[in-house]
What does this fold into?
Amino acid sequence: MKKFLFLAATVCFALASDALLVGAGGGYKKPVTAVIENLKKDGVNVEAAFANIKQITIQAAEGKMAVIVGDEAFLNKSGLEIKGYERLGKGTLALVTPKEKMINDIKDILKFERIAMPDAKKAIYGIRTTEFLKNSNLEKEMSSKMLAVAGVPQVVAYVLNGEVDAGFINSTEAEARRDEFGSVIYVDESLYSPVFISAAKLAACEKHVDCAKFIDELKSERSKEIFAKFGLK
It folds into this structure.
């Protein structure tokens, strides 16, 4: 029921028929929203939906979504008819802790009892967390301590509420809320697959007059500054 309520709250498709619909993984809500707000100020009618990337691709299959912002590798395997990509940057896996729990090394998670992570089958950074645990030989020791939740926003909530000792999220959320965490530790990028974050153009993009404006906005200096600010390299 909690999962249903989250999706109902985060994925809203009650849009005006002429609005451009952009979907994105929940971990990229803040930068994508900032880009969209700039466009709205310029008079462009664009709305967004956010959830874990698997849920977004399911909704995109209905044909109403024009663009998806997410992990390029995941989108390549989604089965969607993608017309092209606009690469936005490279994401990074991070470990964050509540204010009262400070650590200096990623292996300090061994002393923790409960660590949150995004869904390993449906969320970009859940997949990368699983890869990291396996490649760092921590999978066996940590398996009973990992708590899988829907996506990055839920991990953040668990960490900030002190319900877990730590959580794996993306660099975007880690930088956006750095002051709210005790520690922010970036995971060695050699221990998981690269995370290239791109805007994938779908069939609906070619039919919508404002889609080209959205793609052009992603290339603008003000959008590049937004993505850099939120941790995309």
Observations:
- The first strand starts at residue 20 and ends at 25.
- The two ends are 37 Å apart (CA to CA).
